[in-house]
Amino acid sequence: MKHKVNLTVEQKQKLLDIVKKGSTNAREIRRAHTLLMASDGYTDKIISSTLHISIPTVERTRKQFCTEGLETTLAERPRSGKPPKLTSSEEAYLIATTCSDAPSGRTRWTLRMLASKMVSLEIVDSLGKSTVGRILKKTN
Question: Which end of the chain, N or C, is surrounded by fewer C-beta atoms within 10 Å?
Fold first, then answer.
């Protein structure tokens, strides 16, 4: 076992509080369980089968605790995800366009027309009607 988990009394109590209360997210509770079992001397195989997680997950949790500490191990790292298609000012422009008068011959703006307008004004390279709908759904 490369990374041995040695918890202080305060750290162990904090982890026990997290596990007992169950008010934090599931990943944090799972990490707390992993660290508690690791500090009690359980093997990675037993921890993984008990908590229904993979052995590499147990190893990563141990390693992160030993190298970065308890707070970092419990905290959720930001996920990369796809960046938003529009900035907040571009979203504001889209909403303002939606509230403006519709083009001549139309009674109202359609999602497709709004997307085309944003592209024709060269605000974005491409924009789908579903993205426009999602953005407008966030507004009242």
Answer: C
